[in-house]
């Protein structure tokens, strides 16, 4: 029998930055594989539209429900099939998660669970019926732990299983043995397709586990390690659905701009942008100071500093509900807001020092959302703004992707954000993002074998930065050594220097004599000089020193070899950001990590949630439809 929700292990899969080395190795391997591949794959379009069969099987009002899934907004879900035989389920898109999350049957068990729980949570995954499930036990989800204690405590039943894109028969690509988490928590009401290609490192497992996007790329199903996503906007045109393109982008969906955002130095927050201002259509300034904020579609709301929330409160007449921590909107207030019809313009910049940015404008309708069980007891309107306790919580959630089009290129470590355009029946124009040439992005070829070195997790950023600094120091030391040697040789030709050398040699010879004498006397102290038994070596004192100085280099190449590949990325970030001194950067990096992995976040008491989750452990019999689905390779056709 396989384990299902046994006593929580409370360990956390480490997707920390030192897994970056693995990713780089991965990319390198993939690039080599790509060069070898005869046929080039094209970008995959993942359509949120369900097949007829599922619309019928779903609810009588199936079509309407499809564009309005989720308990905190009308979100477009994407169909995937999980397990063998394949079970159809629907998920949202997470730019932060590195694995696929599906709501497990345990997620709808317990008292006070509505009877339509399974339907509203995107259809459940029954781990027990999947013959290809390989269990790895419960692990912390380890994403969004900066957003409060609830998120930090969330965990899933992890394992490996087959995951295919689209519904059965739709011909989407299917991959075996991918990391899947079965969710029980209510904090994520619907499952997630994780698009972050960082590998997942389970601490009881030697090798980092590749992400779904990496596997698609490695299997030549997509042309590059990249994706584009927009969440859809049910208030636009004929209720516009979301769009996900893997390995490319859809040119017909957005207004081009010239701004490219480099990845943030902290890999777990790579999609960080500068938010320079938020301006209302009446000229109101809603963001007193520019902030750095993460684009993260795992959560719905926009998390802003308290001053900004205050400005929103006065502009929109919002009232904060302390119980639910939401800006609930009653009917009267809703009518007023609709009449005001204030639109907001968010100005994004690569760094806060930049003056030229991208404007993304939102009509009020983008914030006119509803929230329902389990966040509130009865469905209500709310404004999707959340108070952030501090700068680690600043987030542009899925709401932001209603009017924005996000393209992320992991090969080039950059991304772009563009204003979504709305044209009825615009013809699709999917453009592939090609990988960089192997020589460009491989960059540190031949250094890939040092990935798996045991390092303390908490200091990994520090270790990497340390490694970089050690590497720089080693290069500097080596350069100095060479320079010194050449200079030394030049000077040897000079008489005075020759005399010096003669003296040095004489000294060394004396030392050598002493050494030999000591050796002859069998005096163990001889080794305390730290010189080798080769007497000639003693004459080249500097060369003796150099190995000592070179030690960091040896250390660096042995232990941080491919970390230095990501070092390149980090160094680029160093140049790009305001922090210009290496010293300060080094100090900040571990600090940032500690914030992210800290366990002592508190936001609200989560006692009720926990005990409720534990109560649900008893099994119930619900039949989920399942049929045989043989994996269909290649050529995913949308619609
Ligand atoms: C689910 O059930 C609740 C009440 O039990 C109801 O309010 C809600 O509208 C239902 N949701 C759907 C999608 O049918
Ligand atoms: C995936 O698993 C199925 C069934 O176990 C098998 O038939 C298929 O060949 C596997 N595909 C790959 C690419 O390994
Ligand atoms: C609706 O909310 C506004 C503020 O958000 C409040 O002033 C008003 O009294 C509320 N109206 C009702 C009927 O609750
Ligand atoms: C609100 O303003 C937008 C433009 O910002 C406009 O397209 C829309 O029709 C307006 N809605 C209402 C209800 O007036
Ligand atoms: C972006 O919006 C801001 C504020 O509304 C405005 O000052 C600026 O000119 C806009 N920039 C562009 C390029 O439209
Ligand atoms: C829902 O109702 C229950 C019981 O009536 C109450 O204890 C709980 O606080 C309510 N939840 C919310 C979010 O209002
Ligand atoms: C990434 O950078 C390259 C070259 O600098 C640029 O051509 C490309 O458009 C950028 N990609 C994105 C998604 O911004
Ligand atoms: C990649 O390599 C090809 C052929 O070697 C070359 O034509 C092309 O310009 C290269 N592209 C880049 C981005 O270097
Ligand atoms: C790295 O790649 C270059 C160009 O392909 C090659 O000349 C060089 O030998 C490679 N270095 C190592 C260490 O493999
Ligand atoms: C994975 O995590 C374990 C435990 O934290 C660690 O010992 C191991 O080095 C890590 N592996 C990689 C490749 O990062
Ligand atoms: C940010 O706020 C959270 C929740 O209040 C807190 O746990 C965390 O320590 C804070 N982080 C920093 C760096 O202040
Ligand atoms: C899950 O699958 C097991 C084994 O087939 C079955 O006994 C159980 O009833 C199923 N659970 C649900 C909720 O469908």
TrEMBL record:
<dbReference type="InterPro" id="IPR001461">
    <property type="entry name" value="Aspartic_peptidase_A1"/>
</dbReference>
<dbReference type="GO" id="GO:0004190">
    <property type="term" value="F:aspartic-type endopeptidase activity"/>
</dbReference>
<feature type="region of interest" description="Disordered">
    <location>
        <begin position="582"/>
        <end position="639"/>
    </location>
</feature>
<keyword id="KW-0732">Signal</keyword>
<feature type="compositionally biased region" description="Basic and acidic residues">
    <location>
        <begin position="539"/>
        <end position="552"/>
    </location>
</feature>
<feature type="compositionally biased region" description="Basic and acidic residues">
    <location>
        <begin position="582"/>
        <end position="608"/>
    </location>
</feature>
<dbReference type="Pfam" id="PF00026">
    <property type="entry name" value="Asp"/>
</dbReference>
<dbReference type="GO" id="GO:0006508">
    <property type="term" value="P:proteolysis"/>
</dbReference>
<dbReference type="GO" id="GO:0000324">
    <property type="term" value="C:fungal-type vacuole"/>
</dbReference>
<dbReference type="InterPro" id="IPR021109">
    <property type="entry name" value="Peptidase_aspartic_dom_sf"/>
</dbReference>
<dbReference type="InterPro" id="IPR034164">
    <property type="entry name" value="Pepsin-like_dom"/>
</dbReference>
<feature type="region of interest" description="Disordered">
    <location>
        <begin position="526"/>
        <end position="553"/>
    </location>
</feature>
<feature type="coiled-coil region">
    <location>
        <begin position="491"/>
        <end position="521"/>
    </location>
</feature>
<dbReference type="InterPro" id="IPR033121">
    <property type="entry name" value="PEPTIDASE_A1"/>
</dbReference>
<keyword id="KW-0812">Transmembrane</keyword>
<feature type="compositionally biased region" description="Polar residues">
    <location>
        <begin position="624"/>
        <end position="639"/>
    </location>
</feature>
<comment type="similarity">
    <text>Belongs to the peptidase A1 family.</text>
</comment>
<feature type="domain" description="Peptidase A1">
    <location>
        <begin position="76"/>
        <end position="418"/>
    </location>
</feature>
<keyword id="KW-1133">Transmembrane helix</keyword>
<keyword id="KW-0472">Membrane</keyword>
<protein>
    <recommendedName>
        <fullName>Peptidase A1 domain-containing protein</fullName>
    </recommendedName>
</protein>
<keyword id="KW-0175">Coiled coil</keyword>
<feature type="transmembrane region" description="Helical">
    <location>
        <begin position="461"/>
        <end position="486"/>
    </location>
</feature>
<feature type="compositionally biased region" description="Low complexity">
    <location>
        <begin position="612"/>
        <end position="623"/>
    </location>
</feature>
<feature type="signal peptide">
    <location>
        <begin position="1"/>
        <end position="37"/>
    </location>
</feature>
